[in-house]
Design brief:
The complex is a heterodimer. Helices cover 33% and strands 25% of the residues of chain A. Chain A has 13 helices and 17 strands. By secondary structure, chain B is an all-alpha fold. Chain B is elongated, with a radius of gyration of 21 Å. Classes of the chains: A alpha/beta, B mainly alpha. The complex binds adenosine-5'-triphosphate (ATP) and magnesium ion.
């Protein structure tokens, strides 16, 4: 657990970057610091590993004040990932990952073996081990940065906008990978971002900071979206706060109709305007409209019970039928969420 | 006789003469003298300028020294400095020649080492500290390997300069390849002038090649980005 006790950082020029910050980052959880540029996110993060020293207050690591620990020793026990990866250009990837194990005096062979394991763990081809950083793409370098931070298996991981310099698709992948890794590793992670969507996706709890370094709200993402503490937070969350909230509403309770599904080659008549055509395995093929039964229209799917209401709504909007196809984990249709059903679920979401 | 054919015949005369291959004034002796003066001066300059440049670049303290030395190097006349030291100290030892040579070759090494270290991407320096490296480790394990091309460039510039200036040192009555040129002019022995000049040029070329080799061996392919993506 990382504890901020009324921590203030005043730079020599008088700028107050962090103002009496008090919060806890619980063990095994992801705590996200989010806020507009210059609100003191990086400063707060770097005070944990003493890259910056606090002016007032204390930061405790499992109850031990970091101010009392020799900085290099402290940092070797804390993983640190920065925006541009910051890999050592003169070292091969495997040696970059093994940086901290080497510093800790591990046997070279063991350090390299650990590095190779981590390379795979972060989703990279082991063949990249012998390359130099300049031979990797930005996204690959960022993965190496994460592997390097994890190499000595530190309990705490600090990440400062680690995914903001890569394109949106790669960023989504990296975020998913981080969540997957975290489900295996259970690190205490402090993650800095200025992107509220990233904060909501990754955070077990989100700390919204305000320029001047004041904590505006500390809450889990769902609470943050439904009960913003003040106008600043409300404005920062943006206009589509309601839509984002749908991410936290399960589709398990969504009412499905199973009488709208027909097999491929169906040629009968039906009072329904839209029918879902499925193949022999039950996988959806398309929507059949009673106006033009010879042509199938596009469809959208969501995994029933696993995906959120946001995904269900998205699926509905992808089809001219206005209905979303509920599928199981293997992609077979289990039913159809009609507009009516979605409407009911949305009404419920708006209430609670 | 055209200019070229007289050049060739002078060369033949110079390199063909048996006198030039044995005895105190022979080519091997002069080469060794040249190597001794310039090598010693360069070594001393490296020993002074590299640690100084590393320390100033890493700590940011004493930057004024780098600026002053760079400007002095541009302002000081090489020959004037040599003559002054010889007049002050006489020619009993080689030091009146070595000291000005060292003074001349310190600035390029100092400036380039300093700039190399200082110019390393701050993000990289930051990452090194963030991983838990201590100050000297950051310098030795990250900054120096990354700045090495510039440090070597400084050394190479100085080496070329020293080799050239050692030629001028012959004015003061010391040995080295410059003797052929200066004595040759004095006695209108143009074969000696031409042969000596060619030797000096070759010497400088060899120095360049040696530095290029050293660069290949010591600079990481990750820094020089020599490798193709495999
Ligand atoms: N070394 C410094 N000296 C003086 N002021 C500084 C220094 N570093 C940061 N600041 C100031 O402190 C405040 C907080 O900076 P910080 O880098 O923590 O912001 P941030 O939230 O990480 O911003 P961004 O999203 O742009 O990275 C800013 O006003 C910044 O200008
Ligand atoms: Mg920042």
């Amino acid at each position: 657990m990382i504890t901020f006790e009324s921590v203030t950082k005043r730079y020599p020029d008088g700028t107050v970057a962090v103002d009496r910050l008090t919060l806890e980052a619980p063990t095994g959880r992801i705590t996200v610091f989010v806020g507009p540029s210059g609100c003191g996110k990086t400063t707060s993060l770097r005070m944990i590993n003493r890259m910056i020293d606090a002016t007032e207050g204390r930061i405790l690591l499992d109850g031990v004040p970091v101010q009392g620990i020799d900085p290099p020793t402290l940092r070797r026990g804390i993983g640190y990932v920065i925006q541009q990866a910051g890999l050592f250009p003169h070292r091969k990837i495997v040696d970059n990952i093994a940086t901290v194990p080497y510093l800790l005096g591990w046997d070279r062979k063991k350090a390299r073996a650990t590095a190779m394991e981590l390379l795979e763990r972060v989703g990279l081809d082991p063949a990249l081990a012998g390359r130099y950083p300049f031979q990797l793409s930005g996204g690959q370098q960022q993965r190496v940065g994460v592997a390097r931070a994890l190499a000595a298996d530190p309990p705490v991981l600090l990440m400062d906008e680690p995914f903001s310099a890569v394109d949106p698709i790669v960023r989504t992948n990296l975020q998913d990978e981080l969540l997957r890794l975290q489900s295996e590793l259970n690190k205490t992670i402090v993650f800095v971002t200025h992107d509220i969507d990233e904060a909501i996706k990754l955070g077990d709890q989100v700390a919204v900071l305000q320029v001047g370094g004041r904590l505006a709200q500390l809450a889990d993402p769902k609470t943050l979206l439904s009960e913003p503490a003040d106008d600043f937070v409300r404005e920062f969350l943006g206009q589509d706060r309601g839509i984002r909230r749908l991410r936290f509403i399960s589709t398990a309770g969504l009412r499905l109709r199973t009488d709208l599904t027909v097999a491929e080659g169906f040629d009968g008549s039906s009072p329904e305007r839209w029918l879902l055509v499925v193949d022999g395995d039950g996988r959806p093929l398309g929507w059949r409209s009673s106006d033009r039964p010879e042509e199938l229209e596009p469809f959208g799917t969501f995994v029933h019970g696993t995906d959120s209401m946001r995904a269900a709504l998205d699926a509905a909007l992808l089809s001219p039928s206005g209905c979303a196809v509920a599928v199981d984990e293997r992609g077979r249709a289990v039913g159809v969420a009609t507009r009516q059903a979605l409407d009911e679920a949305l009404a419920e979401a708006a209430d609670g | 006789m055209t200019w070229l054919s007289s050049f060739v015949s002078w060369l033949g005369e110079f390199f063909g003469s048996g006198e030039n291959w044995s005895g105190p004034g022979s080519i091997p002796v002069r080469l060794l003298e040249h190597l001794e003066f310039s090598g010693l001066a360069l070594l001393l300059a490296v020993l002074i300028a590299v640690p100084l440049g590393l320390a100033i670049g890493h700590t940011g303290r004493g930057e004024l020294l780098v600026v002053v030395s760079a400007n002095l190097a541009r302002a000081l006349p090489t020959l004037g400095l040599l003559v002054m030291f010889v007049l002050l100290l006489g020619t009993a030892s080689i030091w009146p020649v070595i000291i000005p040579l060292v003074l001349l070759s310190v600035p390029p090494i100092l400036v380039n080492t300093f700039e190399g270290i200082k110019g390393v991407d701050p993000e990289l320096r930051d990452a090194a500290y963030g991983m838990g490296l201590r100050g000297p480790q950051v310098l030795g394990r990250v900054l120096v390997p990354v700045a090495l091309p510039l440090i070597l460039l400084g050394c190479r510039l100085s080496a070329i300069q020293v080799v050239a200036t050692t030629t001028v040192a012959a004015y003061t009555g010391l040995g080295g390849l410059g003797r052929y040129v200066i004595d040759g002019f004095a006695t209108k022995d143009y074969a000696s002038v031409v042969g000596g000049s060619v030797l000096i040029v070759l010497f400088a070329l060899v120095v360049q090649v040696l530095f290029a080799l050293a660069q290949r061996v010591t600079v990481s392919p990750g820094v020089s980005q020599r490798l193709k993506v495999r």
